[in-house]
TrEMBL record:
Membrane-protein topology: Peripheral membrane protein
Keyword Cell division belongs to the record: yes
PANTHER family: CELL DIVISION PROTEIN FTSA, CELL DIVISION PROTEIN FTSA-RELATED
Record family assignment: Belongs to the FtsA/MreB family.
Biological processes annotated in GO: cell division
Primary role: Cell division protein that is involved in the assembly of the Z ring. May serve as a membrane anchor for the Z ring.
This protein's name: Cell division protein FtsA
UniProt-listed Pfam families: FtsA, SHS2_FTSA
Domain SHS2, chain residue ranges per copy: 7-195
InterPro entries: ATPase_NBD, Cell_div_FtsA, FtsA/MreB, SHS2_FtsA
Compartmental location: Cell membrane
Gene: ftsA
Source organism of this protein record: Maribacter litopenaei
Subunit structure: Self-interacts. Interacts with FtsZ.
Keywords, alphabetical: Cell cycle, Cell division, Cell membrane, Membrane
Length: 441
């Protein structure tokens, strides 16, 4: 399906759904042509739990973006998050038929496709296979093996896994809203594309995207993605806490958080009070800002500590894995006052707020450069990239369909009895991890 030279990113979030249309200008920067936003009503903690509502919200956002830009939306790139996402490390290799020929794209593809065949837990599906470093004939730490000679090509992979049903539900919403699903991307990766600079990814950086329903983490070092995680808490639970703690309705709690909220309780004086209108003829409520920020502080600390555990799991304490560029905060939740200082205090790492203007054209609308739109801008970038790759992908698809016939793979399974063994060990490990995650919830 031809869609002119523009692409579309669709961010299906817990609090809002954003459709964003854009294209690359002659300087390689991204020009935003239209944006549409609607309240998200059928999504809970990053997972669709009401198909009909979600379809409605998607259609609203899409219509708004179309009206805004005067363009028609066809195919979209969608982000996926939610607590069902997990990631794991895996290494695999292929033996090349002809070591007299240099390694090319096809070799890398067949190595990646082999990883996609990993046996997952029932009900799970691989979303991304991200190569980290390659090894050619035992020579390690190769970033780009194309053009080299070698018989055995090996790589470490970062594999991102999600629940089949959740992915299918997202696909169903897109189809029912009258759109084509171009691609599904992990949301932390999309946000990272939008807000991180090349230098930060090289130096080592943790991107924390605090959304409404989930907090997403992506860690880069030496320019390569090293770790991803989705934590099932976000700005929504902070609002929920304020609602419960102050006995007010959600709308009031949200506006209190946005207007007066702070992650640092020390700065509010005891006598700073905000008065909230009572419900239907009841007395107005008075809430001290100190109490408000205490409620927010408690929950934010919990979220950041969970993220910090993930950063430690990656191995931040090791000298070689140090994240020199520290932390970048983005997403709607990153706009909370004094959050940067609190994150620095808890983690001891340099922190900045990430705005998705890294790759946007200079004359872009102020609004789009807000951390709120980081994921949407990243998905748009992904859509533009995949449109550029479309022809290559088409060839790939044909190759994948023919793959089972290829003799090389048939022999591989006979020649390499180790592979079966490794999978079963891997299965046991994933089951353990799953139990652990279930208990953790």
């Amino acid at each position: 399906m031809e869609q002119g030279n523009y692409s579309v990113g669709l961010d299906i979030g817990t609090t809002k759904i954003v459709a964003i249309i854009g294209k690359k200008n002659e300087y390689g920067k991204i020009e935003i042509l239209g944006i549409g936003k609607s309240k998200s009503l059928g999504v809970h903690r990053g997972v669709v739990n009401n198909i009909t509502q979600t379809i409605k919200s998607i259609q609203q956002a899409v219509e708004q973006a179309e009206t805004n830009s005067g363009l028609k939306i066809g195919s979209v790139v969608v982000g996926i998050a939610g607590q069902h996402i997990r990631s794991l490390q895996h290494s695999d290799y292929i033996t090349r038929k002809d070591s007299e020929e240099v390694i090319n794209e096809d070799d890398l593809d067949s190595l990646c496709n082999q990883v996609y065949k990993l046996i997952m837990l029932p009900g799970e599906e691989i979303i991304h296979v991200l190569p980290q470093e390659y090894k050619v004939d035992g020579q390690a730490e190769i970033k780009e093996p194309i053009g080299m000679y070698g018989g055995r090509l090996e790589a470490n992979f970062h594999v991102v896994v999600g629940q089949v049903s959740s992915i299918k539900n997202v696909g169903r919403c897109i189809k029912s809203a009258g759109l084509d699903l171009g691609n599904i991307t992990l949301e932390p990766l999309a946000s990272a594309d939008a807000v991180l600079s090349h230098e930060e990814k090289e130096a080592g950086v943790a991107l924390i995207d605090i959304g409404g329903g989930t907090t997403d983490l992506a860690i880069f070092k030496d320019g390569i993605i090293r770790h991803t995680a989705v934590i099932p808490f976000g700005g929504g639970v902070i609002t929920e806490d304020i609602k419960e703690g102050c006995s007010i309705i959600e709308k009031q709690a949200e506006s209190l958080k946005v207007r007066f909220g702070s992650a640092w309780p020390g700065e509010n004086k005891d006598n700073e009070i905000v008065s909230i209108q009572g419900l239907r003829g009841r007395e107005p409520k008075e809430i001290t800002l100190k109490n408000l920020s205490k409620i927010i502080h408690a929950r934010v600390v919990e979220i950041i500590e969970q993220v910090y555990v993930e950063i430690k799991n990656y191995g931040h304490d090791e000298q070689k894995k140090k994240l020199i560029a520290g932390i970048v905060l983005t997403g709607g939740g990153s706009q909370l006052k004094h959050l940067k200082q609190l994150v620095e205090y808890i983690t001891g790492m340099d922190t900045r707020i990430g705005y998705p203007n890294e790759h946007l054209a200079g004359d872009s609308d102020e609004e789009v450069a807000s951390p709120l739109y980081a994921t949407a801008v990243g998905l748009l970038m992904n859509a533009i990239k995949s449109q550029e790759k479309k022809t290559a992908v088409h060839v790939n698809k044909i190759r994948q369909e023919e793959e089972p016939v290829m003799a090389g793979f048939e022999e591989e399974s006979v020649v390499n009895p180790m592979k079966k063994e490794r999978k079963s060990v891997f299965d046991k490990w994933s089951e353990k991890l799953k139990d652990f995650l279930d208990n953790a919830e």
